[in-house]
Amino acid sequence: MYFEDFVVGFHFEAEPKQISKAQILAFAQDWDPQPFHLDDAQAEASPYGGIIASGWQTVLIGFEAVFRTRLFEKCSIGSPGVDEVRWFIPVYPDDILTCAITVEEARRSRSKPDRGFIKTRFVIRNQSQKIVSSFLATQMLLLAA
Q1: Between vectors from CA 61 to CA 98 and to CA 127, what angle results, nearest 5°?
Q2: 34-84, pLDDT tens digit by residue?
Q3: Single pTM value for the model
Q4: Which of these, 120, 141, 127, 103, lies nearest to 63 by C-alpha position?
Q5: Which secondary-structure segment (H or E) carries 62?
Q6: Number of domains in the chain
Q7: Are 47 and 106 in contact (CB under 8 A)?
Q8: CA angle 123–128–131, rounded 5-degree value
Q9: Does the pLDDT of residue 139 top 90, yes or no?
Q10: Burial zone of 97 (CB within 10 Å; 0-12 exposed, 13-18 middle, 19+ buried)
């Protein structure tokens, strides 16, 4: 697929991914070493009542699930940024996360005619269909021609 294929309204849902306690602990150890991500006793005493995933991990799970589909394989040339990152509810061990994307904006580059930009809303839901996190990514994509 190329820029021209990602029209406003294009929608795609990636395969569900289950997150394990081991994955939560490993990510937190390296990237977000807060007690409610790492320590059972402290997490149980927290407002969450147990170990939860880092919000950054949930965003990355959604991102990875979409990019593993290879939708952007031929056309992606990077991103100038991500906006509106939100975390709504905690993600617990064994939750199953599904990421859906919707193209909200698409425009050709004014300075580089071989590419365009899309703004894509990523929405990550758990197994109960509750939104756990979302973000708006701007992506640079090559045109087909």
Answers
A1: 30
A2: 999 999 999 999 999 999 999 999 999 999 999 899 999 999 999 999 999
A3: 0.93
A4: 120
A5: helix 55-68
A6: 1
A7: no
A8: 25
A9: yes
A10: buried
